[in-house]
Amino acid sequence: MNSDAVLLLETVNFAAEKHRNQRRKDPEATPYINHPIGVARIISHEGGVTNIEVLQAALLHDTVEDTDTSFAELEAKFGPIVARIVQEVTDDKSLSKQDRKRQQVEHAAHCSRQAKVVKLADKLYNLRDLNRCTPSGWTAERVQEYFVWASEVVKGLRGTNYALEERLEELFRQRGVQL
Ligand SMILES: Nc1nc2c(ncn2[C@@H]2O[C@H](COP(=O)(O)OP(=O)(O)O)[C@@H](OP(=O)(O)OP(=O)(O)O)[C@H]2O)c(=O)[nH]1
Ligand SMILES: [Mn+2]
């Protein structure tokens, strides 16, 4: 087996162990790991990006934000490039939710291209998930607000990956959200 394949298995296993007790917010409580795997798959399959560090960062992108994982741990295990991409897409949990959401809009344009690819795929996955089913406790208004906010973030990510941006634009169009 080639070394990239071995590395991806090591990475997806690490993410699965970290997210082992987490579930998505959908009524079926889907295992959380479906999300990072799906984000990495969007990047390779739809975005045509096969860069190993980007795919690893996609698999790991919510480990620091949502589990006990530290950046030092990611750097020691997966190296500085992967750790830096994850850092770029990680919200500062010490901020209020409102400030975190605002920071994403402000920071999007200043991310590296690698981080922008992960962010585009993360938003694409989550918007498709919202179209598939509504998270428990979310109103239709909250769903629509997420689309509007996501479009503000995606504005700062444009010019990065045409295929992913086209698919996002179509989802915004369907919701009557102007990009
Ligand atoms: N659509 C959807 N999202 C779910 C579901 N379960 C968990 N999530 C996660 O919820 C986050 C979006 O919900 P919010 O209420 O906006 O954010 P919060 O988790 O910080 O409270 C996303 O986090 P994230 O990936 O870190 O992205 P981001 O939107 O915070 O950048 C998404 O992955 C689900 O069933 N459907
Ligand atoms: Mn995510």
UniProtKB/TrEMBL annotation:
What this protein needs as a cofactor is: Mn(2+)
- Top-rank EC class of the record's enzyme: hydrolase
**The keyword GTP-binding belongs to this UniProt entry's keyword annotation:** no
Q: Which GO terms describe its molecular function?
A: guanosine-3',5'-bis(diphosphate) 3'-diphosphatase activity; metal ion binding
From which domain of life does this come?
Eukaryota
Does rRNA-binding appear among the keywords?
Answer: no
Q: Where is the HD domain?
A: 32-127
Catalysis performed (reactions): guanosine 3',5'-bis(diphosphate) + H2O = GDP + diphosphate + H(+)
Q: What is its EC number?
A: 3.1.7.2
Q: Which Pfam family is one of those matched by this entry? A: HD_4
List UniProt keywords, sorted A-Z.
Hydrolase, Manganese, Metal-binding
Chain coiled-coil ranges: none
Q: According to its UniProt record, which protein family does this protein belong to?
A: Belongs to the MESH1 family.
What does the UniProt function comment say about this protein? ppGpp hydrolyzing enzyme involved in starvation response.
Query: PANTHER family in the record, alphabetically?
Result: GUANOSINE-3',5'-BIS(DIPHOSPHATE) 3'-PYROPHOSPHOHYDROLASE MESH1
Protein name, per record: Guanosine-3',5'-bis(diphosphate) 3'-pyrophosphohydrolase MESH1
**Organism expressing this protein natively:** Champsocephalus esox
